Amino acid sequence: MSQLKSISDQSQFSLRKNLQALNQLPRFIKEIYKVNPLLFTSNVTSRVLSALTPFATLWVGKLIIDEIVLQVNSSTKTLDHLWILVGVELAIIIFTDLINRWTSLTDSLLGDQYSIQTSVTIINKAAEVDISDLENSEFYDKLERARQQTSGRVGLLSNVLGQIQDIIVVLSLVAGLIYFSPWLIVLLLLSIFPGFVNEVKFSNSSYSLSRGWTAERRELDYLRYIGANDKTAKEIKLFNLSSFISDRFQKLSYSYYLENRKLSIRRNLFGALYAFIGTLSYYGAYVLIIYRTVIGLISIGDLTFLSGSFNRLKTRLESMFSRFTRISESALYLNDYYEFIDQKAIQKNNENLELPKKIKEGFVFEDLHFKYPEAETEVLKGVSFNIKAGEKMAFVGENGAGKSTLIKLILRFYEPTAGRILLDGIDIRRYDKAKYQEMFGVIFQDFVKYELSLRENIAVGKIAYIDDEKKILAASDMSLAKEVIDDVPEGLSQKLGKRFAKGLELSGGQWQKIALARAYMKDAPVLILDEPTSALDARAEYEAFQRFIGLTEGKTSIIISHRFSTVRMADRILVLKNGLISEIGTHEELLQNADTYKELFELQAAGYQ
């Protein structure tokens, strides 16, 4: 478990940090505008119009009061002008309600569209980065912070536009106060500024705490997942792990609760003190307005306007300062989002050379070394061999020998620490990575069981053919997945997995046949099968490989398997041991050596005697 963090351990953020984070707002607003220019323009226009209504309402109210006083003291009552003013006030109130409803609607629509766009951007960005990044915990912390505030960014949109609207309101009301009594502005600032400073200070602390606990929050999410999930339920029940998981979750989450509680208590105590100071300042201004009215310096209508303006100004400014802290805090999270999507995928030695239309010579591995990031020992320690064009090569070795690592290097998920891999005499790093990877049809040992339809599960092998039923059925026939299609109630439309309604869970062997079909969906010149038949029974395995041998005629293929009945079908077998090549040759040749292959073969054969 990660070391627990206290507030004092977090990075210290200041008002300067908040202001720096606001530099991202122009980019943010530009992105929102691009989502829907018409809707954005309409939203801003409605906010500007709405911002003018508070001053107009108060001013018309002042005129109404003054007109009432005038009529009360007049011997001749003329009410026409009074009714006109009342009608104007009614029209302003109705207009305000309508325009505010429209603003709320456009806020919601813009927010939904921007939320969709940012989620898509995060998914696409995750697809761009290297596998080495996806296997790095620091990358996942960045990804978590980018994902974390998706809803917060929607709120930021409303807050930013609302802040602009309130600035217009405040400017119009301030102009009225200055006209009557500039001293009211000083008292107004005294009533709200201390609270603003408090909010800024503690919003920084809140962000600091949240950022510092990113890894722990990811662990909490993982504990929630394994504690209540159909994939883990069998072992959780069998090994009686529920108490272990719930206790671990409770301990970690309670530690976070204690830190957050400490922050919340301090925030509220200081907030209460500053609110008290603000209230005294507010009532000082209120007393000043009443006094000036009593001594006849201003009218009853002016009293109504000033008290209403001061009250609304205080409310609006408090709202603005409070919103500023929310905006600046959200902008800090916005920085996390942009930090994630702006990171560049490193393209090493990528010259975008044209790939060969047909592989002529094959692959050559020259003194290949590899060590995983932050690992101390090498997985591969100087491996040299070749795979001829059209050859079926098998990789054999005990767990950890380096078989799957070799596949990752061939597919350019990682780059070698030293040495190189050549394709037809050219270093594979000189080819465009995406086009190079298109050459391979692969089924991994840990293939994904997508909880989508059966059609989609097969079509992911070449998603462009998702509507080509003929090709999907042909791939299914090659992999024996046709039997699965015929067995399920809804055929290719059958939902798989138990996550969604009407989903059907398959056996391990059925899933593996579907995964094999994915490899056949792609008419790739190179096929890689990593433990492709481990879940199949002996008859199905034999039939699947008979078909595989026929279908890969003329193609280069690599097989990783612990089953020697499978391995012996390869043209040559490469035996890895402790990151080095122990042997290489045909099945018959290797049995002549008293070495690793013969030992493993005899151990497995003994199990069938």
Your description of this structure?
This protein has 609 residues and is an alpha/beta fold. Among the domains are: 16-342, ABC transporter transmembrane region fold, CATH 1.20.1560; 448-523, no CATH class. It contains 22 helices and ten strands. The protein has helices at residues 15-21, 25-35, 37-72, 80-128, 131-134, 137-148, 150-180, 183-212, 214-227, 233-238, 242-294, 300-342, 403-410, 433-437, 454-459, 469-479, 482-487, 508-521, 538-551, 564-567, 587-591, 596-606; strands at 362-370, 380-388, 392-396, 418-423, 426-427, 440-443, 526-530, 556-560, 572-577, 580-585. Helix 7 (150-180) runs antiparallel to helix 12 and helix 8 runs parallel beside helix 12 (300-342). The longest helix has 53 residues, at 242-294. It starts with 14 loop residues before the first helix and ends with a helix.
Task: Set down the secondary structure blueprint.
Layout: H1 15-21, H2 25-35, H3 37-72, H4 80-128, H5 131-134, H6 137-148, H7 150-180, H8 183-212, H9 214-227, H10 233-238, H11 242-294, H12 300-342, E1 362-370, E2 380-388, E3 392-396, H13 403-410, E4 418-423, E5 426-427, H14 433-437, E6 440-443, H15 454-459, H16 469-479, H17 482-487, H18 508-521, E7 526-530, H19 538-551, E8 556-560, H20 564-567, E9 572-577, E10 580-585, H21 587-591, H22 596-606
